[in-house]
Specification:
16 strands; globular; 8-stranded parallel β-sheet; Integral membrane protein CcmA involved in cell shape determination; BacA/B; mainly beta
Length: about 170
């Protein structure tokens, strides 16, 4: 009724047609070896250590962890402000987590102020979370697209109406 299969025995070899197809490395016309394309792993967050003081703007499409001091604007995908960090400028990111101090405007799709956060400035967000113990001084405004900087399309400015002129003179 039940018989032992010989496929799993050490000496048995299956025919080569049953092998799963593996992508083969490609060769360019010059004969160079190129490995098969593999998806790139997400790079780790860039880190600014506590002893670093940056004067100027920082812009990245990746993630950044700030522990030092930045005097300038920061734009990133995910921005984490460490407990020892101080930012003086505007912060713009998809996801902002504040553990330290920011003096300036914060714009983010998701903004989270932890219990150790100190923010002096306006927050423009899509979603926000403020933990008990966080210090915040400023205004909070919800927008569907907080990253665009409030630049809404406005109608073209009209030419100012000509002011009436008077030809009277006092002679």
């Amino acid at each position: 009724m039940f018989s032992k299969s010989k496929i799993n025995e050490p000496g048995h070899k299956a025919d080569d047609t049953s092998k799963p197809a593996m992508p083969e490395p490609s060769k360019s016309s010059a004969g160079e070896y190129k490995p098969a394309a593999t998806p790139k792993a997400k790079p780790p967050a860039s880190s600014l250590s506590a002893d670093l003081h940056v004067t100027g703007n920082i812009k990245t499409t990746g993630d950044i962890q700030v522990e030092g001091t930045v005097e300038g604007d920061i734009r990133a995908h995910v921005l984490t402000i460490g407990e020892s960090a101080t930012i003086k400028g505007e912060v713009v990111a998809d996801d902002v987590v504040v553990n330290g101090r920011i003096v300036g405007r914060v714009r983010g799709l998701k903004v989270r102020l932890t219990a150790t956060a100190r923010v002096e400035g306006d927050i423009i967000h899509k979603t926000i979370a403020i933990e008990s113990g966080a210090h915040f001084e400023g205004s909070v405004q919800r927008q569907d697209d907080p990253l665009n900087g409030g630049k809404r399309q406005q109608p073209a400015p009209q030419a100012p109406a000509a002011a009436p002129t008077t030809a009277a003179s006092n002679d």
